Amino acid sequence: MEGYPGVSDGDSTKQQQRHYYLLSELQSLVKDLPSSFQQRLSYNTLSDLALALIDGTVYEIVQGLLDIQHLTEKNLYNQRQKLHCEHQALKQDLARKHKDALQVCKSHNLVLLKANQQVELESLEIRVREEQRMMDKKIVAEIDQKVIDQQNTLEKAGVPGFYITNNPQELTMQMSLLELILKLQQKESQTGLI
Prior knowledge:
By secondary structure, the chain is mainly α.
């Protein structure tokens, strides 16, 4: 086995042992995945993944990406909640305005007023639906961009199986690989290996 970058010959045995340990752990964790994914994760892929995990840098990258993802999701959720609250306030203001207008309306204008209020209400409902649709579209686009950023980062870090794709099967495979990495990181942190 070739030496690892930045590893002296004295450390190469330790690195080799760590590689075998990580590979063994990954092979064990893969057994929990659906068989369709198990078949796609060859020995070479798992060995390459173990190599990528040796120095712990990938764990740090994955954790950083996870933190960014959580912050992004929280921010997007808060934006949507803010829009929802603004819409609720608009609806309440319109309802109050309509109620006040009904109280001072002369009976001969009541039919016309109610018709105008119905048009106003429907117009507001259309505006609310359109703004929500646009917000949801923005959220999906931002999440899609985060996925691309994560794929790009992990590909550049040399993590096998990661590249930019929007193929649902490949995305599911990448999520399974991330799950393996996170489970292995958790196990190693619990045993004090990292």
